[in-house]
Each structure stands twice: as structure tokens, then as C-alpha cells.
Amino acid sequence: MRSFPILFLFCCAFGYSQNYSRQEKKLLSQTAKLDSLMQNNDSKILNLFEPDVSFGHSNGWIQNLNDFKRDFTSKKVVYKEIKQTEVSEIKKLKNTFSIRRKIKVSGLYKNQDFEMNLSLLEIWIKNRSEWKLWSRQSVEIKP
Q1: How many other CB atoms are there within 10 angstroms of residue 48's CB atom?
Q2: CA 118 to CA 105: how far, in whole Å?
Q3: Spans of the chain below 50 pLDDT
Q4: pTM of this prediction?
């Protein structure tokens, strides 16, 4: 009976762990890099995008690459924290991956604090040996 709590913890920790393929791990590494570069307002983020990338934001705002560059350099939105909380789906078709994930974000928009939970659908395309973001749509998750 004493070993039951240990067995329960073991099952919780390892029973629900996801096994990812090598390509999926590389893609998840790219999503973590994207979140980190965005949080740090690092211009290297632009290297992760396809030239015709499209961003659909939870407020209906749509950006292309030029819009993103302008807003990113002006610091219209400054992220304090971006934390991935869940990966619910990864699908692959030829050289394209779609990934559904959830993130918790906080920061400043036009000097106003914000915090929200977002559900993302991202489409990544393999360009040579690198995965590049082609499209991203976010939807706010209301409590």
C-alpha cells in the first residue's frame, strides 16, 4: 500500500508523455526558439519566417512580413513572458507541418499591460534543412 503513491506518480509522469519523431522534435525546437526570440524582442526572429508569412491575431488584426517588421521594431507590442502550456496536435504532409499549441503571454501593447492565454495554429514549411513559419493564427482562450 505504501508503494501506491510512488507508482501513481510514476504513471502520471511517464504514462502521458508524448513520443515525438526526430522531425517533430526539430519543429518543437523551432517553436521554442520563436517564443524566446519574440519574448526577447530579438531581430533574429525574422530568420524563422517564410517571405510570405501571415499572422492572424486574436483581435482580428492580420499582418504580413512587412507589417510584422514595422511593428516589431517599433515595439508596438513588447512581450514580458511567453510560455507554452500545451501541444495538442502535430500533423505532417510532405514538407509541411501544422501544430496546434497553447501559450500563456503577458506584456505591453501600446504601453498597456496585458495577459492572456492563446490557442495557436501554426503552419511550418521545410525550406532546405530549416523549418520556417508560413502562417500563424491565434485565438484567445477566455476563462
Answers
A1: 18
A2: 8
A3: 1, 3-16
A4: 0.84
